[in-house]
Hints:
Layout lengths: L16 H8 L9 H22 L1 H21 L4 H20 L3 H21 L4 H20 L3 H21 L4 H20 L3 H20 L5 H5 L1 H12 L2
Amino acid sequence: ELVHCLAAPIYTTQVDVTAIDVVASLKPDPADARDLQYLLARAWDAKAEAIYYGQGAAPSESAHRRLVDITSAYATAHPEDMLGVRVAIEAHWALAVTLLGIGHAKDGLVEMDAASALVPVLLEFQPDDDGAKRTQHIVLAARAQALAMAGRFKEGVALLRQQVDISHDLVRRSNNLAANVRSQAVTLSMLADLCDDNGFYEDSCPLYARADVIFTDLDKRGELSQLDRDSSHRMIRERQAKHCI
């Protein structure tokens, strides 16, 4: 299952909904000052995520689409602004996850493809930036799952296995940076989910076990978020209990 969090989420569980709605109601032109654009994007991101976690994926779709519209317009108007590109990638990704979560796999894949298409722009400008590489890995891993959910299982598994290898390399090169370690565990669990959903338990169970060990180690290090503890790690153990133990 995809977790609705590309990196460190900018929303909080206790958001000032009134303030968010006031900012979200602004209608600036894409050519307006970047600070206003980012403020608007943050407001819609917070609103979409609050709806997603408070009411569910389906009710959050329209807010996520509005976020995509805002960030895409700004990135098109300012292609030199790499923060704008990154925010647009994250917006497409979040909408894709939302659509996949409500069973709209083909529409979700379209949005994931849009996110993937912007990643090379980011990497061309920041080829040695670990954050850009981590974004590429997360987006491609999610695209692999979207491919499988859209009926292109073999393509999805092949791409996701490639991303598992890349995640291992990222962890090694970053000297076990917590964000990269977490990404490794999430990628392993995504591949495990694909195998598990299609009855390949002999493949999924070892993958779940590896992801479980990584999350457990992060928890012991005090570097596992409550969100991951309650969602990603919990879901891994639920799957293990169902098919692996």
